[in-house]
Design goal:
It contains 5 helices and no strands. By secondary structure, it is mostly helical. Helix 2 packs across helix 3 and helix 2 packs across helix 4. It is globular. Helices cover 52% and strands 0% of the residues.
């Protein structure tokens, strides 16, 4: 992957902006590199428990509180039944 590429997700954009590598984030978040890669490049959905671990790991790396909303799109766009 080139250094000057478009971000594929909010997490990827955060990592690019803060120069965070996937292995570094995986270690800080205590999540496997493979799973971080799938989440970072939007190849899988993420569970809240894992999103919280990733946000905590990102916080450890950048030295400030990073919220889940800063890393993931939390807007749900769906229509209610019967509407």
């Amino acid at each position: 992957m080139g250094k000057d590429r478009a971000a594929e997700s909010m997490l990827d954009a955060f990592c690019l902006a803060n120069k965070i590598t996937t292995p570094k984030l995986a270690e800080a978040a205590e999540v496997s590199r493979q799973h971080i890669t799938r989440v970072r490049f939007a190849r899988t959905d993420v569970r809240i428990r894992i999103a919280r671990k990733i946000a905590l790991g990102a916080s450890r790396i950048v030295g400030r509180k990073v919220t889940v909303a800063e890393l993931f799109d939390l807007v749900f766009d769906y229509s209610a039944r019967g509407a």
